[in-house]
Amino acid sequence: MTARFAPALALVAALGAVASGAACNAIVGNGDIEFVTEAGARDATAGEEMPAQPEAAVAEASVEEGEAEAPEAGEPPDAGLAVDAGCEAGGKACAGSCVAFDDPGYGCGPTHCSPCELLNAVAGCGTPDGGVDGGALSCDVAICKTGHADCNGTPLDGCETDITADLYNCGTCGHDCTRLPNVAGNVSCEAGICTFDDSACARGYGICSTNPDDGCDTSFSDSSHCGGCTTSCSTSLPDCSTTGNVATPFVCTSGCAPGLSPCGASCVDEQTDPNHCGGCTAQCPAVTGGTATCLGGGSCGFTCNANDHLCGTGSGASCAANNDPNNCGVGAACGKCAAPANANPTCTGGTTCGYACIPGAHACGTACVLNDDPNNCGSLCGTDCPGPTQGNGVASCDGNVCAIACGEGQSLCGSACVNEQTDASNCGHCGQACGSGQACSGGQCVCNAASCAAGCCDASGTCQTAALFAPCSAGDGNACVTDCPAAIPEAQSLVLWLVGDTYVSDAAVWTDQSGHADATCSSCPSASAGALNGHATVSFDGSSFFALGDPGGIYQSTAFTVLLVAAPDPGAASNAQLLALSDGAGNTLSLQRSSGDPDLLLQLLSGANDGSLVATGGWSGSAEFVAAEVSSTGALLTAGSSAVTGDVGTPADVDYDASYLGTAPASQGLNYIGQVAEVLVFDTALSSASIASVESYLSMRYALP
Q1: Which of 641, 636, 625 lies closest to 699, judged by CA?
Q2: Does 276 reside within a domain?
Q3: How many Å apart are CA 489 and CA 291, to the nearest integer?
């Protein structure tokens, strides 16, 4: 009797064609490899990581050949959607246009542009961890092609299993035709159905069920099915006896023939029957992948089924599936197959070891290399993807496309990795170049005082090109006039103007830009070129200082305003003197450290009018704007973010002709340590508007916070 089975199977179906999409381009050819380059908005280019699914799964929907197609991967968007400054949330730039993170036509997630191309499947974008962040998205199987399924749960190789013919995944994943009950012979998978006939049944069994999953379901040594599904022994011939005849192995008899033993209603050969081996109740144990045998004298054994092989010897022997790479080879030769990195071992026919590269890898010689290996990009071997032409980055491979992965804080512009926050040629986004004299700061083009010919920027932040200080002294409305000190109403009261850019330590002179009297030194500070926003500073080491000249009694006044840019060193001595205007007879106006605290002190010593103000944190070591003013109407002290006002008295009406920068007047001790970039002294009280104007000039010139 021959039986073939065709149970109703709910086969998963899908489109016949695998969805594909255009990779990010423009590109330059490299054999079969494509190289992604910038086109408009910055392309996402990092390597792709595919998550393993927790269990094999196939889409429930079915799309038969010729029926309406499932949703295709997204078509390239209209070029008008591209935005220079970047894409909106949930989008990325590919091929110069903005596309959604979840468009499989451009990869999935925020960092890829190569399309999801999955074998025998329509691709989608999945979130294996259930998250909603675009970073969790990866290429996933949306629908499998008819007759295929994703049985290994790894989206990278799509729907890799042909469930119409796979012996171990027949009709659905995990449906193993080699493990059907009492089927010992050849079995196959045809059109998704386990197929076998009576000849495949173990000795003493036959097929009576219409469900192939029941295998050889019926014992033909039983009197109710003696030799056949419908043969029941009568009362006159109640016993079912084995005959030893292959054509008619069991017949109904009355009593048992010689050599057979009665076991219930069956007459059995206890020397050969594995269900009664040496006795009616002595059943040989079942063997996975094999059929129990009785060798005589009550000794049990087994033979391996047609799709299994003997593994091991003696008491340790067992039957192993012919595709089991952990038990490959016959008998004593049975062992575990080895595989190179990025590969899974295989076993063919139960005897021959091999290996298959994992999804996302391909064979190169005897090795399996990852598809995103920049030295073996895509399916090719020996490909050398180039790195960036500029900046910090490495060559990468996005699917089968050579790409560049830029380092943290850098973006790919063309083939270069740049910091769009600071790169003047790509400020804010690729291709946005700043103008002459401008720098890129925070992704915005701003005036760069260090590179301006005049050394300053005007009120609109535009770099001007007039000669250094000339616009300020000319007062003609050109560069920096609105901010420079010579343009304010009280400019005629400017008695000292020292600028770090003009100091030459070897000359022992610091030129006074106001034209009155230069500062001189015998133990001279050093100059630090370009130390503060591209401008020089003067460095005091605790042993150097300047004497301030006083031709014509220019320092005789009852009101002073001092404006400067300095970075006092917290390592300076307690009460260290930054600037001291003195007559040498006890009348002094000084800026100094407040004892040993990190504070700046404005002190007036003039008999009964002694007084002081303290700016907290004004001696912290950071470059800062300092403003100090003393007059009969009050005093103010500003240092960085600290500002205080009060009444410290009125300076004595004397000539402060014993004045110093960086030391105490009387002893030339308590010397200053730190940097000074610029000093301005007015022999009058400036208006608040004028102080703000000079502060604006200094802050922009030295990039103060």
Answers
A1: 625
A2: yes
A3: 111
